[in-house]
Amino acid sequence: MSAGRERTALARSNAQASGVYHRISYGPSEANHLEIFADRAGVHPTFLMFHGGWWQEGSIDDAGRYAVTLTPLGATHVAVGYSLAPSATLAAIVAEASAAVTYLIEHAATLGCDVSRIVVGGHSAGAHLAATLVTELAPVHVQRAISGLLLIGGAFDLEPIAESYVNSLVGMSADEAKRLSPVNYVPHRNIPVLLRVGEHEPSEFHRQSELLREKWASHATVSLATVPGRDHFDVLEELDMPGGSLLRDARALLQLSGT
User: Other CB atoms closer than 10 Å to residue 146's CB: what's the count?
Assistant: First the structure.
C-alpha cells in the first residue's frame, strides 16, 4: 500500500471511530463515489478534493488522505472518485465533477457540509476538474456553491496536452481540448483562487498556472505562488502534514483557525 493510501486508511479509521464517515454513490459509474470524513458531529466548512493522474490514473484513495490533517482543524473533508479514460470521455468526467458537487449540495446537512463554505481543491488533472466548476462548464448552481479554489500543479490549457502522449488514452479532439480548457472561460463570481506550483515542476505547469492567473485576474481574487523545494508529486506533502504551506492555504480558504 502506498503512503498516500495508508493515510487514507488512517483517515477512514479515525472518522469511523468518531462516527462521522460516509461512502456514497453520486452517479451511475462504479467510480462515482464520495467519501466524507469528519472528526466530530455537526456541519463544518468543507474541503472537496479531486485527485490527479491525467484523467486516466488514480482513485478516490488518493484524495482521502488529507482528512488526517484537515478534519482536526474543524473541516469536513470530501474525497471524490470519478471515471477514468479511456472508459469515459473527458467531457463525461467534467460532467461527473459537477454531479459530485450537486449531490453534496443537495445532501449537505446530512453529510455535515456547510454550503456557505465549500472549497474545492485539486492536483494536476484534478485541478483542471476543480477549475471547471466555477465556469460555464458547470451548471449555475454549482458555480454559485464554490467559495474558493486551491489548484495545485494544474492543467488549464488542454490544447498542448491534446498533442502529447497523454491524449493517447484520453482521446480529446482539438475542438474538445479547446472547449474543455478553463483558460477559455472566466469565473462568474469573485472568489479566492489559489494557484500553487512546485518549484521543481516542469516549466509547462508553471506556464499553465500563469496563463490561468492572467485570464482570471479581472474576475476573481487570484494568487499564484511557487512552493519552494517541491516537484509535481511531493508538493502534495504540503497538504498532508501539519504546518504545510498548502494546508495553511486550505485553512485560510475554509476560514478555520489552527496551525
Answer: 20
Helix, strand or coil, per DSSP, at residue 4? helix
Only one residue has cell 502534514, namely: 241
Mean pLDDT by 10 residues, the chain (259 residues): 80 88 97 96 98 97 95 96 98 99 97 97 99 99 98 99 97 98 97 99 98 98 99 97 97 85
Considering the entire predicted model, what is its pTM?
A: 0.97
What are the structural domains, with CATH classification, of the chain?
3-254 (3.40.50.1820)
* Among the listed residues 25, 63, 55, 44, the one whose alpha carbon sits nearest the alpha carbon of residue 132: 55
User: Residue 168, CB half-sphere, CA atoms under 13 Å: how many?
Assistant: 3
Complete DSSP assignment for 46-97 = EEEEE--STTTS--GGGTGGGHHHHGGGT-EEEEE----TTTS-HHHHHHHH
SS3 162: helix
* Three-state DSSP class for residue 23: strand
Question: Could you give the 3-state DSSP secondary structure of residue 144?
Answer: helix
